[in-house]
Design brief:
binds magnesium ion, seven-stranded parallel β-sheet, 29 helices, binds cytidine-5'-diphosphate
Amino acid sequence: KLYQTKHLPEELTDGDSGAKISSVSGANRKRKWKEDEEEEQKEVKKEQHKTEQNGQNEKISDQEKVENKTPSQPAVFIPVDRSPEIQEARLKLPVLAEEQVIMEAVRENPCVVICGETGSGKTTQVPQFLYEAGYASEIIGITEPRRVAAVSMSHRVAKEMNLVVSYQIRYEGNVTSDTKIKFMTDGVLLKEIQKDFLLQRYSVIIIDEAHERSVYTDILIGLLSRIVPLRNKKGMPMKLLVMSATLRVEDFTDNTKLFRTPPPVIKVDARQFPVTIHFNKRTPMEDYTGEVFHKICKIHRMLPPGEDEDEETSETMRKFKKAKQKKTVSLPRIDLDNYSALPVDEGDEDREAGIGDEEDEGSDLDIGDDPASIEEKADPSIPLYVLPLYSLLAPEQQAKVFRPSPHGTRACVVATNVAETSLTIPGIKYVVDCGRVKKRFYDRVTGVSSFRVTWTSQASANQRAGRAGRTEPGHCYRLYSSAVFGDFSLFSEAEITRRPVEDLVLQMKDLNIDKVVNFPFPTSPSAEALVAAEQLLVSLGALKEPPRTGRVKEMEQARLSCPITPLGRAMASFPVAPRYAKMLALGRQQDCLPYVIAVVAAMTVREIFEDLDRPACSEDESSKLIQRRARLTQMRRLWAGQGASLLLGDLMVMLGAVGACEFAGCTPKFCEENGLRYKAMVEIRRLRGQLTNAVNAVCPEVGVFVNPKMTPPTEHQVVCLRQIVLAGLGDHLARRVQAEDILDPKWKNGYKTPLLDDPVYIHPTSALFKTLPDFIVYQEIMETTKMYMRGVSAIEAEWIPELLPQYCHFGSPLESPSPWLCSSTGTIKCHRSSTFFRVGWQLPAVEME
Ligand code: CDP
Ligand code: MG
C-alpha cells in the first residue's frame, strides 16, 4: 500500500519537505493579480528563497524536467459542444472574464486559490475551463461539503457541457471508467485518499466551498498540501484549486505550515446588483419565526413581484407553520387545506447525516410538517408557491427551486443556510433574514451535545443579503437591528474547532500521521480536543498505550503521538465513529454481527423515529396526535420486548424497528404507520450493506451475509450485544444514584457520570425510563430541558472491571464502605467479580497483543 511507505509520515507531518518543492514555482511566480502583495513579500522572501534554492538545486532541475515533459502545460484545447442558450448564459458569469488569468495561474502554480461571490460561476465553470484546457487526462475531481451540491452541480455541468459528468456521494454515484469530471463530497475524497494516498486517478482536485470550513475540507487541504508536491516530485503532476466565496482565505494562504509559499489568489469580481438592506428597529428574541412569516406576508401583499422571486429565510418550518396557526399574524385569510397549486412533497424531516459523513448537521431544518403544504393566499389573485430547501431534502424536491414556479404564482423559498452559498437560486428579489443559525454545540469536556439557535456571523448575513441581487436590484429585510448586527462575529468559526475529533484522529493515524498535533490544519483543533481524542482511542484499543514512565516531557509527547494498533486499522476501515467501529470489530462473536451492524447503522443514522413531542397545529390535530402517540409508544414497547431483551433498551427498540421494517418490505406506508422515518430506514438499509462489506473485507473468513430479514436475537445474543455495546460505549457509563445517597431532590431518578457534576436522566420516551437499571451506557447526552441520555442500554456491574479495566479503580471492599459511590476523581468504583460472560477482544484477521 502506497500510504504505508516508510518515509511518508515525516513528509506529512513535517512542513518542510512539501514546501521546498512548491517554492520552485514560487520563485518564478510573478502574476499581475498578486503584484502588490508580491512587492511587499518579495523583500522578506528573497533571502528565504535563496537559501532554500541553494539546497534544492537538484530537486528544482528534476521538477523542471518533469514540468516540461508532462501534460501539466497542456496545449490541447478540447472542444465542448454547448447549446447557444447555455453559451449565452455562461458569458454573463463574472468568472468567464477571469478564465485566462485562472488558467495561467493553474499552469504556473501547483496550488491556486479562487475567491468569488456565490453565483459568480466558480463551481460550474472552473471544471469546464480545466477540461477544455486539456487537464482531463485523468479525472478532474471537485469536492463539495454537501451532498446536495455534489449531485445538483454534476447535473448542471453535464447539461452545460453536453457531456457525462459524474458524482459520488456516500451511498450513490454514477462514476464510470470514462468519467472525466467528478463531483463528490469531501468525505468521499478523504476515503479515497486512504486507499490511494497519491490520488493517481486525478489530475486536478478542486476543493469547493472552502470558506465553509467543514472538517473534511480542512483536512483535505492539509493532506493535499503534501500530496501535490509529492505527485510533482514523482513526475505525476497534479493541480490543486481551492475555491472560496469569501475573501477570508488567510487561513490557507498565510499559513506557512500549510503552504510555505503562499498560493496565488485570484479574485473574481461579483456581478451583483445593489441590494438595499433594511434593518428592523427592534430585535425579536422569542417568536422570530412568526416575525419572518409576518414579513413575508407583508412583502407578498405590498411589494411588486420580480421576474421570478423568492424570499428566503434560514428558519424552522415547524414554527413557521405554527406561527401561522396561532394567527399571530394579521392576515386576510389562510386556507391550509387548499393544496391545489402546490407540488407534492414527501415532507422529510431529516436533521442530520450520519457520523463520519459529510453533511453539516447544523444546516438542516427541524421540520415537523410537510413544508410544501404551507400555502399563503394573502393576495387571492397570486398564490404563493412555497418551496422548502435544505440539504437532506430529496434531490428531485430540491431541483424544484431551479424551475420556474407554476404560472400565476409567486415563489417563496424557505431555506436553511444551504442557500447561503452552496446553491444559487435564480431570480430572488427579496430576502428575509432572521439572523439565526441552528448549530450543534458539543462540550469537549463533558461530551454533552445540544442544538442551539444562535446569531449568525456578519459574513453569513452578508451572503444571505447578496442572494437578493443576482438578477436585478433587490432588498434584504434583516429582522434585527443594526446594533445587533454590529455584535455578530465577523466570520463563522471553523467546524473543526467545535466538534469531537476522535474519528478524524483515527483516520489520520490510519494514514500513518502519528503526530496529529503537527498536521498542517488550516485551523487546528484545540490541543484539549486532540488529547481527549487520543485518550479515547487508546482506551478503545485503537492506539497503542503511551509509556507511563520516563521524563515528563517525553511522556507528554508520547501521549500525543500514539501509533495505531491492528485493531485500530480494522476500526478505521469502518465508515462509522470509533466507538461504533469498536462494536463492529467485536461483533462477530456469538453470531451477533448482523445485529451489531443493524444497531450501529441505526445509531449512526439519527432520528429514525418520528418525534413524539411534535406540537399540534390545530385542536383537531391535537386529538389525533394523542392517539398517534399512544399507538407509537405501544409499538416501541413491542420492539423493546420483555425480560432479557428489554435490558438492551433503546438499542433493542432500534433493532426491533429495523427488523420489523425489513420484514414488512421497508415501505413508506409501514414507516408512516409505525412512526419511522422512511428516509432514515432506507439509509439504514444501505448502511447495513456498506458495513457488511467493510466487515467482510477486514475478516473475510467470517463471511457475514446480512439478510435484510433478521430473526430476533436469542437471549444469549442479547447478553452478548449488551457487552459489545458496553465495550464500545465504555466512556459513556452512568450509574444510578442510590436512594440512600440522595441528599438533593434533583438526584431523584438521576444518574451520575464520571465527568459531569450534575445528574443526567433517562428520557421519558426511552425503553428503560421505568426500569431505571443501576448501570447503563448511553449513546449521547443531549441537553434540552434537562440533560437527557439518548440510546440507553442496561449493563451489569460485574462486566465493568473485566471489559473496562482502564476506567476502574480497584480496591478491596473493606477500604470503602460503599463501593458504588463515585470517588472524588469521578471514577466509578466497583468490585471485581468472577461471574460474567466474557467478550473476547480478538479479531481474527489481525494479531493483537
Ligand atoms: O460556484 P458559484 O457560487 O460561484 O456559482 P455557480 O454555482 O457556478 O453558479 C453559476 C450560475 O449558474 C448561477 O447564476 C446559477 O444561478 C446558475 N445555476 C443554475 O442555473 N442551475 C443550477 N443547477 C446551478 C447553477
Ligand atoms: Mg459554488
